[in-house]
Amino acid sequence: MAGGVGDGADRDLVTVELAQGRALRFARGAPTALAHLHLGIYSFTRAALARFAALPRSAGERACDLEQLRALEGGMAIGVALLGARCYRAVNRPADVARVEELLARRGGESLKAEEGYLG
pTM, whole model, 2 decimals? Predict the structure, then answer.
């Protein structure tokens, strides 16, 4: 279901392969010709969230540390929308937050721009 875990910065990159607006698989590492970079923004119905929360961690989730695989391996569908902007900098760790705060301080609090690698 999922790809392997890359080293260094590749570990923070998550990709998604899709068909007809639905996720087929998620993996860690640089995108391939078939995969798009994944920016996870989720919304759930109450019932779907309860179902997801009740699922045990799946083998894919444990192997790749990707909770999306729990949903897919549990038979849930994940809708995917493609964005027109490029976003390739993840904010996953305290050091990432510090980098964003520094960039915002230099910009006087203005939003970050896509050319800086963030949606803005």
Answer: 0.69
